[in-house]
Amino acid sequence: MESESLLSILKAALLTPLSVTALLFLGAVLLSEAAVRVVRIPRITALVLAGAVAGWVRNSNEPTALVPLPSALLEALAKVLLFEVGQRVPLAWIRRNPWLLAASVGETGVTFRATFAVLTYGFGLPPVECIFVGVICMAASPIVVMSVSKTMRARGQVWQRALLFSTLSSVYAVLAMQLLFAGYLAVVHVQLSVALQALFQLLGSFLLGAFAAGLLRLYAFITRARAAVLTIGNVCCCVLLYAYALPLGLSSILSALFLGLAVRATDRTHSLLSHESSETGTLFTLAFFVHRPLCVREQTTLT
Question: What one-character DSSP code corresponds to residue 275?
Fold first, then answer.
């Protein structure tokens, strides 16, 4: 009895959410680096696969499977990376060449039509479900594009155009989903105020991103932030943005992108972009791609 109580006390002391997360992260990083060196696969792929293996190990072990992982960490990491994506998007290209905007709209439209046609005629799904799935499939991940370009040290117009198109497709998908949701609420509830609520959320997301950008500029002006001090301010603004977006019912994805876009548009001296050259972005990218597959089963269960 004493040995069992001692084991239970040790298990409760050692298997905490923070310790399990740290051990899984460490094991996944070691496994990914071994895969990169031995198998010669891309680092991003190795991180995702290592995170999936670590998630399988966690779920197959009953004591660790019962320990909840801090899913808010994944969301906060995603918002920091989306902020950096917004800073890297060259919106000046659209002003100089509006055909880029037309090309991105056409590319997104072709993706939606192809997805809708396959689901409708190939699988026989209802049109309403095909529309929603098609809108979701319109989005490309700008975080993946940015991470791959940083890993390969890509430079020039090709990767910037790929980042621009992937970011715009994500914005189109979020906007279209909000409009579809507003139309659905208008049809079900037959209330204009309910339908306009989704549109107000879009405006609120933009205002929240603009407010966070002003707060970050004020922080940089007061502290004359550089290097690590500037990175701390960027991370804190992104975390605060995520913390306030959820209670207000706003889109944290659009708010983070608007934050990065507003900072890039208003920072003519590029003093707020100096954190991109640090290793912090690499750390966030690594943690995001490892933590994402770790939380897949837990998020699916909660959903």
Answer: G
